[in-house]
Amino acid sequence: MIPPLLELRDVRAGYDGISALRGVDISVRAGQVVALLGPNGAGKTTTQKVAGGVHPVDSGRILYGGRDVTGIGPRDAARAGVCLIPEGRGVFPNLTVRENLWMMTFTGKSREEIEDLAFSRFPILSERASQTAGTLSGGEQQMLALTRGLATDPAVLLLDELSMGLAPLVVERLYEQVAQIARDGVAVLVVEQFASAVLDMADHAAVMVRGQVEYDGPPGESLRKELANLYLGSS
Ligand code: ATP
């Protein structure tokens, strides 16, 4: 069987002796969207950071395409095709949309190729091309961040709280694109605190509680029950 593109095996990690991940197992395959859910402080962002080589593990293993890359830094992770789009979008607010895109020419793509990539997926960005990124709506900034990430031709895309502060319709549109990105063969791990939009398109879901994965399975009825228990304390 083809190994997952991204795999965390029994990963433990923390901050100055405070344990944030207590034995996390997660895998994401090419073409798959995995939703990583859970309440505040559960360890979702730390999992993303560990997966992207931004935060070190205390123990356990990280594998890309079956290859052990534990201890790899963010630079080598990026070289290996892992793209982390952090919460808060990571665009340059004082640069125009076009300049934000042009910065991605370090990938070897031309300005035109990168603009095509952005404007074909998100036509609204072409209307905003000369505006500074800081004046875009939250959804448009997220579109820009997403296309900047795609310019690196990632094999694995790590998205943190894509829906944060956005209107439901905007979130739906963004997730349609995320589903399309996965269909193109990318392995996508999406962190969300609130689940509904991502669950409509996720292939698989994991729920974290206090640094551990409590549910790992399809995004169906049993997951929704698990989430209801978690957030509402009901059964
Ligand atoms: P949120 O949705 O609030 O971001 P999360 O599920 O992403 O939550 P993490 O941000 O991964 O959770 O946090 C996991 C644990 O690690 C929490 O107890 C948090 O307080 C702690 N933590 C996170 N970042 C740091 C940090 N920079 N320094 C110290 N502790 C941290």
- Which cofactor or ligand species appear? adenosine-5'-triphosphate
* Class from helix and strand fractions: alpha/beta
Largest sheet: 6 strands, mixed
Oligomerization: single chain
Shape: globular
Q: Percent of residues in beta strands?
A: 25-35%
Order of helices and strands: EEEHEEHEHHHHEHEHEEH
Report on this model:
Helix 4 crosses helix 6. The longest helix is centred in the C-terminal third of the chain and has 16 residues, at 168-183. The chain has 9 helices and 10 strands. The protein has a 6-stranded mixed sheet with strand order 6-7-8-3-9-10, with helices on both faces. The protein has a 4-stranded antiparallel sheet with strand order 2-1-4-5, with helices on one face. The chain is globular, with a radius of gyration of 17 Å. Helix content is 34%, strand content 26%. The protein is α/β, with parallel strands linked by helices and 235 residues long. The structure holds adenosine-5'-triphosphate. Residues 15, 18, 20, 38, 40-46, 193 line the site of adenosine-5'-triphosphate (ATP).
Short structural description:
34% of the residues lie in helices and 26% in strands.
Main attributes of the structure:
235 residues; alpha/beta; six-stranded mixed sheet; binds adenosine-5'-triphosphate
Topology of this structure?
Layout: E1 6-15, E2 18-28, E3 33-37, H1 44-51, E4 59-64, E5 67-68, H2 74-79, E6 82-85, H3 97-102, H4 111-121, H5 124-127, H6 138-150, E7 156-160, H7 168-183, E8 187-192, H8 196-199, E9 204-209, E10 212-217, H9 221-232
Parallel strand pairs: 3-8, 3-9, 6-7, 7-8
Antiparallel strand pairs: 1-2, 1-4, 4-5, 9-10
Bound molecules: adenosine-5'-triphosphate.
Adenosine-5'-triphosphate (ATP) binds next to β2 and α1.
GO molecular function, one term: ATP binding
Organism: Gordonia sesuvii
Keywords: Amino-acid transport, ATP-binding, Nucleotide-binding, Transport
